[in-house]
Amino acid sequence: MHHQYCEICGKHFDRAEKLEEHREEAHYPCKPCRWVFDSALSLHEHNCQRHYYCPDCRLLFQSESNLRSHRHSRTHIIASILCPGKGCAKEFINSAALVFHWESGTCPSRITRQHLNRVITEFDKNHVITNPARMIAGGSDSQTTMWATSRAWNGHAFECFLCHREHRTPESLNQHFASPAHAQKQFVCPRAYSGCGAEFKTLSALCQHVESERCGVRRFKKQVQDFIGDLTSGMKRLGI
């Protein structure tokens, strides 16, 4: 009879499932490689060398970007960036999270994405991260306010006349209009610093791009953080 054999301890099993259970319980298997180790330390060292692996949490990830996102999450970073909005005491782990908080319209200060974009226009006078042709002063989409009326009803749903996406309620369609779904790409990853030039609809998306270090923007990261810091200080002065 064919037996399944554990090369670590020499035990035989009559089914592959039993052998797999044994390896999980008694030894230290690496599932992606299908290797088995005789100690947790050996497996740990293997993962450090061969996989996208967080040595602190001892977790494997499918890609470098997933590992990077994990390392930049609340698991490893203390929320220390305080929202300067009136009546808001929330803290965030990075600039992207703070900016998304503002853009979402959930801050007690009632700041909105449109309001934030106006403030950015005032601060980024040299257009380091903004496209002047698409910002508010140049005819941005943020000047136009859309809302759902009875005419949006197509017989079975409330329909966006721009993308024809359907919504069950007018409130849901209004949230769609208020989102950056149809916004222009007003923000840019500066080619002068990164050689990238990627464009984004929101400042939070640009901040996420910078913090993800997906391009040569790593050298620019400090400047972006300084810019957000100046913006935060400016919002305090404006009493937002």
From TrEMBL:
Residues 4-32, 52-76 form the C2H2-type domain. Keywords: Metal-binding, Repeat, Zinc, Zinc-finger. SMART domains: ZnF_C2H2. PROSITE patterns: ZINC_FINGER_C2H2_1, ZINC_FINGER_C2H2_2. It comes from the Eukaryota. Gene3D superfamilies: Classic Zinc Finger. The keyword Repeat applies. This is C2H2-type domain-containing protein.
